[in-house]
Amino acid sequence: MMTSVDTDLLRVLADPLRLRIVTLLARETLCTTHLVEETGARQTNLSNHLKVLREAGVVETEPCGRFTYYKLRPVVIAQLAGQFADLAESARTATDNKRACP
Questions:
Q1: What phi, psi does 101 have (nearest 5°)?
Q2: Residue 55 and residue 53: Cα distance in Å, rounded?
Q3: What confidence category does residue 71 fall into, taking pLDDT thresholds of 50, 70 and 90?
Q4: pLDDT greater than 70 at residue 2
Q5: CA-CA distance, 11 to 19, in Å (whole number)?
Q6: Are residues 102 and 84 in contact, defined by beta-carbon separation less than 8 angstroms?
Q7: CA 53, 65, 68 angle in degrees (round to 5)?
Q8: Residue 21: which residues within 8 A CB-CB, separation 6 or more?
Q9: List of long-range contacts for 27-36, beta carbons under 8 Å, 24+ apart
Q10: Of the candidates 70, 57, 90, 87, which has an alpha carbon nearest to the alpha carbon of residue 26?
Q11: Among 33, 50, 53, 96, which one has the highest count of C-beta atoms within 10 angstroms of its own C-beta?
Q12: What would the pLDDT profile of 13-66 be if each residue is shown by its tens digit?
């Protein structure tokens, strides 16, 4: 049952601004302009973070006229949550496992 947690995805989500973006997108689909207003980040900085999130498969884009909307891919977050749930279950069942010292 032991699974490893996706460390690449954890690195992507470890950045405070990217985690803030993911949190905002969990509530609604937003364009870059909305994300700049909500986070206070500069547009270029925000775009760089969105690129990282896109490349990691965490968000997807939806063109709408001259704007690009971003939405969270919940399946990616659910998979990560499942990996942590499996890790927790392994820890629960391993409480009696103790390796002897040499």
A1: -80, 145
A2: 6
A3: very high
A4: no
A5: 10
A6: no
A7: 10
A8: 35, 39, 46, 49, 50, 53, 59, 70
A9: 29/62, 29/69, 29/70, 29/71, 30/69, 30/70, 31/64, 31/67, 31/68, 31/69, 31/70, 32/67, 32/68, 32/70, 33/67, 35/70
A10: 70
A11: 53
A12: 999 999 999 999 999 999 999 999 999 999 999 999 999 999 999 999 999 999
Structure tokens at 35: 């994300």
**Token pair in block for residue 94:** 């391993």
pLDDT score recorded for residue 24:
97
Residue pointed to by tokens 């690009």: 68
